[in-house]
Amino acid sequence: MAQYQFTVQTDDTLLVFLLARLAGRSRTTVKSYLSHRQVSVNHQITTQFNEPLHAGDTVTVSTGRGPEELRHPMLRIVFEDAHLIVIDKRHGLLSMGTDREREKTAYYILSAHVKRSDPDGRIFIIHRLDRETSGLMMFAKSQQVQEAMQRNWTDRVLERRYVAVVEGHLPRPEGIIDAPLAENKGLKVFVSNEGQSAVTRYRTLRAGEGYTLVELSLDTGRKNQIRAHMEHICHSVAGDRKYGAATDPAGRVLLHARQLRFLHPVTGEELDFRTAVPALFESVLSMPCDAESAAKDGYSPTGRSTVNSTAAPATRPAAKPAVRSAQRGPKAPARAGKRHKRSGK
Q: Does 130 qualify as catalytic in the annotation?
């Protein structure tokens, strides 16, 4: 399979640009590349012959068979090349299988997808999102790429940002939650001085009547980190009853992985994928945080469950104060690399 890559010098439209660059190929052949998903602009596959191009854009054409389009109600592919797949996952979908569920997972759906183009194709987990969390995550198409990403995770993953609707109003518009996390026998994560280091940065985007929309970024990647940290400061993610939420205004945990920026493990290019804030999150901001009604269902307005639970141990080691002003936190060092911003809309 031959592959051609071009850099756009002046503004143009895609078909006109391709006809000029692919001299000797008929208009019908060039249009077939588009219809068979063999053309990408800035690493995003497109089939639109009139897509506008701007100076600096990268256009790639593969003359072999392109990947088939995936249509599934629980996820959509944001980016795909020979090495990686980036998806936007809906809430309620497992990242990978469990003893109880093998097929209703992102892993199973994507495995079937790659096998339609290549019967020997495989998918490898790089990182996970909780079942209750929606948003961006990535998979590898080979074990070598998987290991390259996981082995150098801190260096290759430049930024991960989430948005969440949390109960109540935060004491300050931005801050840092620096509190180590451990996991108990009930598989619940909690703050403990005996746990692993965990740092979450937050920034208020909008405050509503009883809820706040916040943006969160991770310095570390512990299991259930955001959910446990927000419970720790008594502002649980709305709908997250496992982690102390007193209310469930939308029938789901209101946490979404909004941005994923990383260095491609093979090409070294910087890729930046983003999605919009879910409309549902915005609509919840106008609702009151009705903790009184929630308490009648067995949840207290303090964010602590009033029903019996084995999720927390009888005693926990005391944890040091965890929230500090963001201005006092160190900034992450800048990393070099070509940048290709991608919208997940």
A: yes
Indicate if 67-151 has the same CATH topology as 3-62.
no
Question: Which entry of 12, 81, 130, 240 is annotated as an active-site residue?
Answer: 130
pTM, rounded to two decimals = 0.70
Would you call 184 helix, strand, or coil by DSSP? coil
Query: CA separation (Å) from 211 to 86, 214, 233, 271?
Result: 30, 10, 15, 32
Q: Which CATH class is domain 67-151?
A: alpha beta
Return averaged pLDDT per consecutive 10 residues of the chain, 345 residues in all: 81 93 86 85 86 92 69 89 92 84 86 87 93 95 95 92 96 94 94 96 95 95 94 97 96 96 90 92 88 42 31 36 42 45 50
The CATH code of the domain at 157-260+277-332 is 3.30.2350
Name the DSSP class of 249.
S
Give the CATH architecture of domain 3-62. Roll (3.10)
